[in-house]
From TrEMBL:
<dbReference type="Pfam" id="PF00158">
    <property type="entry name" value="Sigma54_activat"/>
</dbReference>
<dbReference type="InterPro" id="IPR025944">
    <property type="entry name" value="Sigma_54_int_dom_CS"/>
</dbReference>
<dbReference type="InterPro" id="IPR058031">
    <property type="entry name" value="AAA_lid_NorR"/>
</dbReference>
<dbReference type="InterPro" id="IPR000014">
    <property type="entry name" value="PAS"/>
</dbReference>
<dbReference type="GO" id="GO:0006355">
    <property type="term" value="P:regulation of DNA-templated transcription"/>
</dbReference>
<dbReference type="InterPro" id="IPR002078">
    <property type="entry name" value="Sigma_54_int"/>
</dbReference>
<keyword id="KW-0547">Nucleotide-binding</keyword>
<dbReference type="InterPro" id="IPR002197">
    <property type="entry name" value="HTH_Fis"/>
</dbReference>
<dbReference type="Pfam" id="PF00989">
    <property type="entry name" value="PAS"/>
</dbReference>
<dbReference type="Pfam" id="PF02954">
    <property type="entry name" value="HTH_8"/>
</dbReference>
<dbReference type="InterPro" id="IPR027417">
    <property type="entry name" value="P-loop_NTPase"/>
</dbReference>
<keyword id="KW-0067">ATP-binding</keyword>
<dbReference type="GO" id="GO:0005524">
    <property type="term" value="F:ATP binding"/>
</dbReference>
<dbReference type="InterPro" id="IPR003593">
    <property type="entry name" value="AAA+_ATPase"/>
</dbReference>
<dbReference type="InterPro" id="IPR013767">
    <property type="entry name" value="PAS_fold"/>
</dbReference>
<dbReference type="InterPro" id="IPR009057">
    <property type="entry name" value="Homeodomain-like_sf"/>
</dbReference>
<keyword id="KW-0238">DNA-binding</keyword>
Amino acid sequence: MSESNSIKSSMFDSLFDIFEEICEGAISVDEKARIVWINSKYMDLLGIRDEDEVLGRDVASVIPESLLAHVIETGRPILLDIMRFDSRHFVVSRLPLHDEEGAVIGAVGFVLYNSLDYLKPLISKFEMLQQRLTSAEAKLAAARHARYSIANIIGRSQQINDLKEQARAIARHSSPVLILGETGTGKELLAQSIHSASVRREAPFVAVNVAAIPDSLLEAEFFGVSPGAYTGADKRASKGKFALADGGTLLLDEIGDMPLQLQAKLLRVLEEQEFEPVGSNTVQRVDVRIIAATSRDLKAKVREGSFRRDLYYRLNVLPVAVPPLRERLDDIKPLSEYFLETIASRSGEALKVIDRDGLALLESFSWPGNVRELKNTLERACLMCNSPSLTADTIRPFMPATLDFPDSPITTDAGLSLPARIASVERHAISRALEMTGGKKAPAARMLGISRSQLYDKIRDHQLSG
C-alpha cells in the first residue's frame, strides 16, 4: 500500500471512530442490507440486550423505517433525516460504503440525536412554513371549486324553472356545453351550477375570461409554459388552465372572442383530450369537461369566418340559453329581495325593503345589463339612501341612464329600412353613452349592457371616434 493510501485509510478510520464516539448510535449493513455491526449505544436506544439477536438480520426487520437498503440501492447518501422508532424520533445520517473499485458493498447509519429537542427551532420553522403552505393550498383548492349550485339560481318564472331542469339534465353528461346569453344574465352561475350537480363536483372548477386576456398570452394561459420556453420565462414549469382543471370543468367565458389560431388548438384538445405546453414537445393528457359561454352570435361569426365552424359544432353539443331579465320580469322581486339581503349582510347595515311602487319601477325597465345591472342599481340605492324603505322616488335617481333620448333617430329616420334604422339607433346609443361617460369605454359598455370587446367592435363597425 502506498504512503498516500495508508494516510487516507488511517484518516477514514480515525474519522469513523470520532463520529461513532460523538453520535448516539451507529449501525452497519452489508450489500444485502443485513446487519453486520451495531454499537452498544444504538443497542441501548433500541432496547437490544445482545448483538447476536440482530446480527445477520435484515435491518428493516429490526428498524422498520430504516432507509439503509435504499442507500445501498442508489449508492447515494442521506445526510440528514428524521426517523421514527416506536414513539420516538431520531435524527439520522446514512452513508454508502464502497470497495476499492467503487462498488457499493454496504452502508452505515449514525444517530446524530436521539431527541428532536436539539432541532426544535428548525422544526418549528419548518412546521410554520408547512402550515402556511397547507393553508395556501386549501385556499387555492377552495378557489378552484364551484361556489354556486342550482339552488343559487334565483327566480320563480317558468323560464327559470325550465333552466334549472335543463341544468340538472346537462349535469348528468360530460359532453361540451355552450351557454348563450346576454351580458349580465348569469352564465358563469349556470356553469358552476352544472359542475356542482355533476360527478365532477369534487374536482376543480376553473374559469377563464377569453376577452380579458391579450391574444399573445392566451396560449400560455390555456396550456402552460415549459421551463425556459422563451427569454425571460420562469425556470419552473407554469401550469395552464387545462392542467389546473384536470378531472374537473373548465369554463371558457366569452368564447366568441377567441382568436382563430387558438381555436384550432382548442379543437384538438376537445377531440384528443391532450395538449402541449408552450415551448414543450411533450404531450400532456387531460380529462376536462368544457363549458363555453358567450354573449356573441356565434352563428353569425361562423358565417363571417371569424369563428371556426368545426369548433362551433364541437362546442354546441349541449346548448342552453339563459333568458334576459326583460323576458322574465316575475323574477325581479325574488332577485331584488335576495340582493337586498346580500347587500345588508356584506355592509353590516339594516336590511332595506322595497315597496310596491319601487318594485313596479324596476319591473318597468328593460334592463339591458340584466341581473348584474339590477344588482348594481339596488346596491347604489342602498348605499346612498338613508331610508329603511326603497320607494320609486328613492330608486329612480340610481336607475341606469335610459337610451331613449328625445332626439332618438327612431323618429327622425323614419324613411330608412329596418336594418338601417336599427344601425342608426345603435350608433346613436353608443355615441350618447360615450358622451355621458367622457369617452370611457368600460362604464359605457356597462351602461349599454354589452361587453367591452363588443363595444370596441361596434365603435369600429359604426366608424365612431373611440
